[in-house]
Amino acid sequence: MRMRTIFFFLSVGITSLCIFFTASAAAQAATLQIVPSTSTQEVNQLFTVTILLDTEGAGVDGVDVHYLAYDPAFLEAQGIAVTPGTLFANTNINTVNAGNGKIDFAQSSQGGSQFTGQGTLTTIQFKMLKTGVTNLTFDFTPNVTTDTNISS
Question: Mean pLDDT across the chain, nearest whole number?
Fold first, then answer.
């Protein structure tokens, strides 16, 4: 039986949030993107999701993903941590809470250096558990610094 999983394209910007396949934020606003934005998977199939960072030309000191939420009735994150990218020197937080379906991940630069450009922040492997439609979402509230944010 085939399963259709919808991953909403979320663009978390320093100054804006774009949701549900909306175009990117204003110039000079760094963004995070879940790739692929949509996916169809078989039950019990393993698949990979990537979180991409695009600084839009601005220097970035680090990224906090507090939290990437998923429905644990549909998806099972593989392992107790996700695979960090190499954009930043330090991985400060890297945990998967399978019980409540939340991934907590943070990376930061070292020694005053900043990252500028595009690249993979992290990759996450999931297993599809049952048929249905589900979402991956960043916890993000504008002007709040305790959820998903890009620091410059």
Answer: 84
The owner of tokens 């996916």 is 39
Under 8 Å between Cβ of 31 and 65:
no
pTM, full prediction = 0.81
Alpha-carbon gap, residue 131 to 61, rounded angstroms: 40
Which residues does 51 contact at the CB level (< 8 Å), separation at least 6? 32, 33, 34, 35, 65, 68, 105, 120, 121, 122, 123, 124
Burial of 145 (0-12, 13-18, 19+ CB in 10 A): exposed
Residues in the chain: 152
pLDDT value for 129: 98
DSSP E strands in the chain: the ranges are 2-6, 10-12, 17-19, 31-35, 38-42, 46-54, 62-70, 75-77, 83-84, 90-97, 102-108, 118-128, 136-138, 149-151
Phi, psi values for residue 118, rounded to 5°? -125, 145
